[in-house]
Design brief:
The protein has helices at residues 35-45, 66-69, 91-100, 104-108, 180-185, 193-204, 223-232, 249-258, 272-277, 284-296, 315-339, 368-382, 395-405, 409-420, 425-431, 438-441, 461-472; strands at residues 25-29, 60-64, 81-83, 113-115, 120-124, 127-132, 136-137, 164-167, 169-170, 189-190, 209-213, 236-239, 262-268, 301-308, 344-351, 388-391, 455-456. With 505 residues, the protein is of the alpha/beta class.
Length: 505
């Protein structure tokens, strides 16, 4: 088997210099819903028919990645097969089977591979009323802890320039109700110290810094061992984000010795009541305490993640974001003055997106005009506060993401048509009988059949519904703990590893 890489700015493969159509299989890793349009654009550019039913001589197309496997439905019109779930312990077997018999049947022999041609849908207006085709399961690896999972290529053109990335853990025990990375990553698992040492030793050959990534990266229970390994190999580390609930002294030492100048916290909502409603059970004071500690360790800039458009959100909740930013600024001012630096409180505020297999899969999102009004209010208020900067993604892009997130196959066909024929996406949806605005603003019915329910996620539907209703009561629920069976994911074969400081939260 020969594997190669294709990049969007090239028409030939990196190592072998082959045309994309020369391969037996083209595999795409889909991270975000908007990649649906990008895949169609690339196929068109490479001279490959984007719509599966119209292809005859092109390579087979395989899709995978987290942005696809919680809802493969809108991607069915493009991909011949879709791999659901994680790679460790399974993807190699799938590829070996395809090597021995390069057919769709060899891919479809695995219970986590969707063969797109086996599925059809019946609709009543916007609603799916029947799905024909076998249910497929999301593969969750029991081998993550013992498998190396890090950067294979370093490039100045990458999003994290020349940064050697190591995935430290997977999943997050807090179960924030909007977060698909949590639900798709559960049960919470951690990299073993032995594997981590091999990865850090490899990283040290190419540079003196690693990026540690994960949905709850600062929850890692072996922070002391991590600290000692970094010292042993002379490597510094940067954390993608830091939980306010984390308090290991070794976490702070790693940050201090790394010289990390910007640290990231994620309050998500500025009012405590709304934050607890989305199941992020951290009081304001804990965020301020964490920021103070991180500033003491040498940090100069604090980046804060917030969401707008959450269920039950009021204008006062939105205004509270700027009020909270002011408090962070007051905390940081003495450190800025003492060090003679011009630090920054960076507010990254984005619209919440309803995701499948989370409690928010039923939620009717705010219309584009409402989101824009909230962001405009934040921009007006934040401009009055020195040292505070506001950024957000384009609301138009967020709307497209929201539509594809809970879409069926008809939306996928409209997306391809918009790329191939140059038709406006809204118009393509209208001609397919789908109202653009309602596709993301309509609240789903409790027992409605969802297009993504060709997938068996392992998460109990009644559990997700109960969590959704608790949002409107502004009530939180417990974090994961060993022995819990609330959501249905933990089993005798696959159980959570308890972060040292997380038990009982």
């Amino acid at each position: 088997m020969a594997c190669d890489l294709l990049f969007s700015d090239s028409d030939v493969s990196l190592f072998l210099g082959l045309n994309p159509s020369d391969f037996d299989l083209l595999a795409f890793s889909v991270t975000y819903e908007n990649h649906l349009f990008e895949v169609a654009r690339l196929l068109k550019k490479w001279g490959i028919e984007p719509l599966r039913e119209r292809r005859s001589k092109a390579p087979l197309l395989l899709g995978g990645g987290i942005g696809l496997y919680y809802n493969p439905a809108p991607f069915l019109p493009v991909f011949d097969a879709i791999y659901l779930g994680e790679a460790e312990g399974r993807l190699q077997k799938v590829m070996e089977a395809f090597r021995d018999s390069p057919t769709l049947d060899s891919l479809g022999a695995f219970d986590n591979v969707v063969v797109s041609g086996e599925y059809s849908f019946k609709y009543d207006g916007q609603v799916v009323v029947e799905i024909q085709g076998p249910k497929r399961s999301i593969y969750r690896s029991a081998e993550f802890a013992s498998t190396e999972c890090h950067s294979c290529f370093l490039s100045g053109d990458a999003a994290f320039k020349d940064m050697f990335l190591i995935e430290l853990n997977r999943g997050c025990i807090e179960k924030c109700r909007f977060c698909v990375a949590t639900y798709m990553g559960l049960p919470y698992r951690e990299k073993s110290v032995e594997v981590l040492e091999r990865e850090i030793a490899t990283a040290a050959k190419y540079g003196d810094r690693v990026g540690l990534i994960g949905a709850g990266v600062s929850d890692y229970s072996k922070m002391e061992e991590l600290y000692k390994l970094l010292k042993k190999y002379g490597v510094k580390a940067s954390f993608s984000s830091i939980k306010a609930s984390s308090s290991s002294p070794y976490l702070y030492e790693i940050i201090r010795e790394s010289g990390q100048k910007t640290v990231t916290l994620a309050p998500e909502a500025a009012s405590e009541e709304l934050r607890f409603a989305i199941n992020k059970k951290v009081p304001n004071e804990r965020f301020f305490e964490q920021a103070s500690r991180l500033l003491e360790m040498g940090a100069e800039n604090v980046k804060l993640y917030f969401l707008v458009g959450l269920p039950t959100e009021t204008e006062e909740d939105v205004k509270a974001i700027v009020e909270m930013a002011k408090e962070f600024r007051e905390l940081a001012l003495p450190y800025w003055r003492e060090r003679g630096v011009k630090g920054e409180i960076h507010l990254s505020v984005n619209p919440v997106i309803a995701k499948p297999f989370t409690p928010f899969q039923w939620y009717g999102l705010n219309p584009k005009s409402v989101v824009e009004r909230k962001l405009k209010l934040l921009a007006k208020l934040s401009r009055k506060v020195p040292g505070v900067r506001l950024t957000h993604e384009k609301v138009k892009d967020a709307v497209l993401q929201a539509i594809v997130s809970r879409a069926d196959a008809r939306v996928g066909e409209a997306a391809v048509r918009s790329v191939v024929e140059g038709v406006n996406f809204r118009r393509a949806l209208k001609e397919a009988g789908l109202p653009f605005e309602e596709l993301y603003t309509r609240e789903r019915e409790r027992d409605e059949l969802f297009p993504w329910e060709l997938v068996e996620s392992g998460i109990r539907r009644d559990y997700l519904w109960r969590e959704y209703r608790l949002t409107y009561e502004r009530r939180s629920s417990p974090a994961c703990f060993p022995g819990c069976r609330a959501c249905g994911l933990c089993s005798d074969e696959l159980q959570m590893v308890a972060p040292a400081e997380a038990v009982g939260r």
